[in-house]
Amino acid sequence: MPKVVQTAGRDALGAFAPQFAALNDDVLFGEVWSGDGLTLKTRSMLTVTTLIAKGLCDSSFEHHVATAKKNGVTAREMADLITHVAFYAGWPNAWAAFRVVTKVYAEDPEDRANI
Q1: Which among 10, 13, 65, 109 is least buried, having the fewest CB atoms inside 10 angstroms?
Q2: Rounded distance, CA 9 to CA 24, Å?
């Protein structure tokens, strides 16, 4: 699997928290996200699920949804994932997730038609 290159940590926090930025970019994305055990699509689905379960449907969640879409998670798969997770992580969390997800997937009419 190709190595995931991320600079968001250094871009946002490099001067203020260089160690955190390096761990984010080099370890989390450079090693964990680049591991051979799971596909990027699976990692994206797991990350989205975990963020929903924690109730974290903020701008970082939107980024992870866009990344999931880029990694091949279809609108139908995302809708099914959130519906399933709603029963385990909470209905309000699912509603919050759907507000973000429908915005991300609305940008692609072809994928949106598959919901």
Answers
A1: 109
A2: 6
